[in-house]
């Protein structure tokens, strides 16, 4: 039975690694300027973790295959080097991994969070609520009007709680259920939660950020390819969580201008 | 730190009558079995819930016969609604993490064997011990009650993130009394665990028999001791967190709820709270909890492996120190659950390093187990197969931790099935393998009867291959970006992944069904198994020096004297290739 364990484990290890090596399951195309650093980091980690996985599983399989059910009373012996070797190996192997991935790899994180958005980044506000995203553009004046939670009235499409009657800045604000942005322009997304926690996840953008009630956060990114991409909620927010999504439309500058003009004329 | 036994405080008279012998027993062995029994009920309940979830994910419109009898609103006509899916998910997580992974390896086996392994007659505080079990049992009943109330079980996940969990039924079904019951249940559970942890610590420190120095204790005794230290600090934080949550829900306070929230078109009457506060408190408990589940399993597996290998582990000391460093580091890493939560991005870097560092002691442990197998003479039994399976699962679940420990990669993988695959393998399945290994190993001691070895090994093969078939594909799904906690997959890119989900569901149904082989074996062997000798596995620790099952006072009123550590294998002893801890002989070869 020990031999069988060795063989089965070796087969499991190889079958588990195969879909990864064959690239059957990879992340969708990256449409951001920062995403390649994350993808690289993921690929490097996959190589190191994959080797550790295969190495450890195959060793385990081999040792059990080789050293199980020998004759009763057979001589037993220790691996040369003993525990010292194991401790040294762990420090060297994992220490190198930590230095290589942990320290050097923080660049990918820094790209997203420590580099401030450029001053000319386009600001768009996103509001997440059970179970929809809404997006607000500041309009011609370039300023967002203040929010009044008590004025939220979904029946009358006042999703953000704007008060254009009293707030001048709100009058030209544009509200949309889809996130339309021009390609190759840096976007700063100002994130506001209406009710409970939600999250903004666009796989192709390599962006995931929670909406936290009471805490207005911001992320910034530059989409590099036109197209329609799914925005999904990844923070459990209630019964409709699975169905909470919107679309990111990355448009050419021309198409975006047209879209914007149309939105302004609709007001 | 040598102890001389005569502590009379904990000695109690033999119990009489059914009620005092089996229900409100002060005997640590009965309490250990009670914990184990509770975990057994919880694990099968949790498993059936996972079946329902897997079933719903791939056959969303299929009718499940009889389910509407349990919840008319949750499964009208037997078809699971999205909110009931979330209820199942919440209850599955809560039952498994608290009532299985904490109860069985730590409170169950720990209660039964820790006093015996250190040569004590009982726990230091037998009444606390009984109270801790019955508090836990009450917690279980309160939680399960949520299935039968009109509101239904909560839908906020086992992590109960505020404000969803805090604002009440405006936010959805199950968030009224369902969530109240959850918070009360977990609060009670914390009290039970705090009492239990204190008891374990006091027992280990004060009741060791003559000659039982700390370094002579078996590795699993150490694991329970370290776990109880972790538990004491972790549950001491979760308990007040639950109290604050209950206050937010019932007394109108705003610890976790900020101002200006509009839920179900109603402006909430709260102000000043912080949802991130809940996350910090919860994960300050939640991450050490992972180690509360896995450390006892590491201890049990080390204990089973050393007995099965017929030679000492390369270094018991290194294992113990590694477990201590894991316990210590487990308090510095909670923020890695919150990389994308809006916490200061600098904190993410700070949390990332200890998380990566914890891989070092974990790797040392793995290499010691692996290296010790070299040159061994491994006896293959159901117990040792599950112990070896544990090592394999621990590696598989461990390497994926390296991805999630890096905030940059977490941006992409957070909240995907990759995370689900990772924690199920490393915390769920690995710990379950530890529990099963311990069960096959100690069953003869606990009942005086052997389990059926053929059925045991059959159970192993189904479980080992099955769990890989279930959880390995989760990682692939996560790499593609498949989001977790979705009741249905209506995303544009999902149809291509549905075959993978179907495969997982079928694997889960088969693997789950195979667990009934175990249940049958457990119950049948309890009554009809072959009688067990005192020391069926040729072990060295003190539990093997007393009858199977042990008498109510463990050592028959005597105080054993210990001469060795528990790793005297591969030597020439009187009884074979081992020397018992309480045998005065010295190793001849």
Q: Can you walk through the features of this model?
A:
The complex is a heterodimer of chains A (267) and B (589). Chain A is α+β, with helices and mostly antiparallel strands. Chain A folds into two domains: 2-69 and 81-113, no CATH class; 122-266, Immunoglobulin-like (Sandwich). Chain A has five helices and ten strands. In chain A, a hairpin with a 4-residue loop joins β6 (198-202) and β7 (207-211). The model of chain A has no long low-confidence stretch (mean pLDDT 93). Chain B starts with 17 loop residues before the first helix and ends in a 61-residue tail after the last helix. Chain B has helices at residues 18-23, 28-58, 67-70, 82-117, 126-145, 177-206, 219-250, 275-309, 316-329, 345-357, 359-373, 382-404, 407-413, 417-447, 453-480, 498-528; strands at 262-263, 266-267. In chain B, strands 1-2 form a two-stranded antiparallel sheet. Helices cover 60% and strands 1% of the residues of chain B. The model of chain B is unreliable at 1-9 (pLDDT under 50). Chain B has a single domain, classed as Cytochrome c oxidase-like, subunit I domain (Cytochrome C Oxidase, Chain A). At the A-B interface, α1, α2, α3, α4 and β7 of A face α4, β1, α8, α10 and α11 of B.
Features:
heterodimer; A: 267 residues; alpha+beta; Immunoglobulin-like; 2 domains; five-stranded mixed sheet; three-stranded mixed sheet; 5 helices; 10 strands; 21% strand; B: 589 residues; mainly alpha; Cytochrome C Oxidase, Chain A; two-stranded antiparallel sheet; 16 helices; globular; disordered N terminus
Domains of chain B, number? 1
> How many H/I helical runs of chain A?
5
> What would you report as the Rg of chain B, rounded to the nearest angstrom?
24 Å
Which overall shape of chain B is indicated by the principal axes computed on the Cα atoms?
globular
The end-to-end span of chain B amounts to: 29 Å
Q: Count of helical segments of chain B?
A: 16
């Amino acid at each position: 039975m020990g031999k069988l364990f060795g063989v089965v484990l070796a087969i499991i290890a190889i079958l588990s690694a195969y879909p990864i090596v064959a690239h059957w399951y990879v992340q969708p195309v990256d449409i951001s300027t920062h995403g390649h650093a994350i993808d690289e980091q993921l690929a490097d980690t996959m190589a190191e973790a994959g080797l550790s996985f295969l190495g450890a599983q195959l060793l385990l399989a081999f040792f059990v295959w080789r050293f199980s059910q020998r004759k009763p009373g057979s001589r037993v012996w220790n691996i040369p080097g003993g525990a010292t070797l194991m401790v040294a190996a762990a420090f060297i192997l994992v220490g190198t991994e930590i230095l290589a991935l942990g320290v050097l790899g923080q660049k990918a994180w820094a790209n997203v969070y420590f580099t401030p958005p450029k001053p000319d980044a386009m600001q768009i506000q996103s509001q997440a609520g059970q179970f929809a995203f809404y997006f607000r553009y500041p309009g011609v004046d370039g300023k967002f009007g203040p929010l009044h939670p008590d004025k939220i009235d979904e029946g009358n499409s006042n999703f953000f709680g704007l008060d254009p009657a009293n707030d001048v800045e709100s009058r030209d604000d544009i509200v949309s259920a889809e996130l339309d942005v021009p390609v190759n322009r840096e976007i700063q997304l100002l994130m506001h939660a209406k009710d409970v926690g939600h999250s903004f996840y666009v796989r192709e953008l390599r962006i995931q950020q929670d909406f936290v009630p009471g805490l207005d956060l911001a992320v910034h990114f530059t989409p590099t390819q036109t197209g329609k991409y799914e925005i999904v909620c990844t923070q459990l927010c209630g019964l409709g969580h699975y169905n909470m999504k919107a679309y990111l439309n990355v448009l050419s500058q021309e198409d975006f201008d047209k879209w914007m003009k149309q939105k302004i004329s609709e007001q | 730190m040598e102890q001389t036994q005569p502590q009379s405080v904990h000695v109690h008279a033999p119990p009489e009558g059914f009620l005092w012998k089996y229900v409100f027993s002060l005997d640590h062995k009965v309490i250990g079995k009670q914990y184990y029994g509770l975990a057994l009920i919880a694990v099968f309940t949790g498993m059936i819930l996972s079946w329902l979830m897997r079933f719903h994910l791939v056959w969303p419109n299929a009718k499940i016969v009889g389910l509407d009898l349990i919840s008319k609103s949750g499964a009208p006509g037997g078809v699971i609604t999205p909110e009931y899916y979330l209820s199942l998910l919440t209850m599955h997580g809560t039952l498994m993490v608290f009532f299985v992974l904490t109860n069985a390896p730590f409170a169950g086996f720990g209660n039964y064997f820790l006093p015996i392994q250190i040569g004590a007659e009982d726990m230091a505080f037998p009444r606390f011990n009984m109270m801790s079990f019955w508090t836990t049992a009450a917690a279980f009943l309160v939680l399960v009650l949520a299935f039968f109330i009109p509101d239904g079980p909560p839908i906020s996940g086992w992590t109960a993130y505020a404000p969803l969990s805090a604002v009440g039924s405006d936010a959805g079904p199950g968030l009224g009394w369902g969530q109240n019951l959850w918070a009360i249940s977990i609060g009670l559970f914390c009290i039970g665990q705090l009492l239990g942890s204190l008891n374990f610590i006091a027992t280990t420190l004060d009741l060791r028999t003559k000659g039982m120095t700390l370094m002579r204790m078996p590795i699993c005794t150490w694991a329970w001791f370290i776990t109880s230290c972790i538990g004491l600090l972790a549950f001491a934080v979760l308990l007040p967190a639950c109290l604050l949550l209950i206050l937010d829900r019932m007394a109108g306070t705003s610890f976790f709820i900020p101002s200006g929230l509009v839920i179900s078109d109603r402006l909430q009457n709260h102000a000043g709270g912080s949802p991130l506060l809940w996350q910090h408190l919860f994960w300050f408990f939640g991450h050490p909890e992972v180690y509360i589940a896995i450390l006892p399993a590491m201890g049990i597996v080390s204990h089973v492996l050393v007995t099965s290998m017929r030679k000492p582990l390369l270094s018991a000391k290194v294992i113990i120190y590694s477990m201590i460093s894991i316990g210590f580091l487990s308090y510095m890493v909670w923020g890695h659950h919150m990389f994308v939560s809006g916490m200061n991005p600098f904190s993410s870097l700070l949390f990332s390093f200890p998380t990566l560092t914890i891989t070092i002691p974990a790797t040392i442990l793995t290499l010691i187990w692996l290296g010790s197998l070299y040159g061994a003479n491994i006896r293959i039994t159901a117990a040792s197969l599950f112990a070896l399976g544990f090592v394999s699962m621990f590696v598989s679940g461990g390497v994926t931790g390296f991805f999630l420990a890096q905030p940059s990669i977490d941006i992409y993988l957070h909240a995907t099935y990759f995370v689900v695959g990772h924690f199920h393998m490393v915390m769920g399945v690995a710990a379950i393998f530890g529990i099963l290994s311990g069960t096959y190993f100690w069953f003869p001691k606990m009942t005086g009867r052997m389990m059926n070895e053929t059925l045991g090994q059959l159970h192993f093969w189904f479980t080992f291959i099955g769990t890989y078939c279930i959880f390995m594909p989760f990682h692939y799904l996560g790499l593609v970006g498949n989001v977790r906690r979705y009741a249905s997959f209506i995303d544009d890119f999902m149809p291509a992944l549905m075959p993978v989900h179907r495969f997982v569901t079928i694997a889960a149904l088969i693997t789950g069904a195979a667990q009934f082989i175990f249940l049958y074996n457990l119950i049948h062997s309890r009554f009809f198994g072959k009688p067990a000798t005192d020391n069926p596995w040729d072990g060295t620790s003190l539990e093997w020096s007393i009858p199977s099952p042990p008498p109510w006072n463990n050592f028959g009123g005597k105080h054993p004297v210990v001469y060795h550590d528990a790793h005297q294998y591969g030597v020439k002893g009187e009884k074979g290739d081992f020397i018992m801890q309480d045998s005065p002989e010295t190793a001849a070869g």
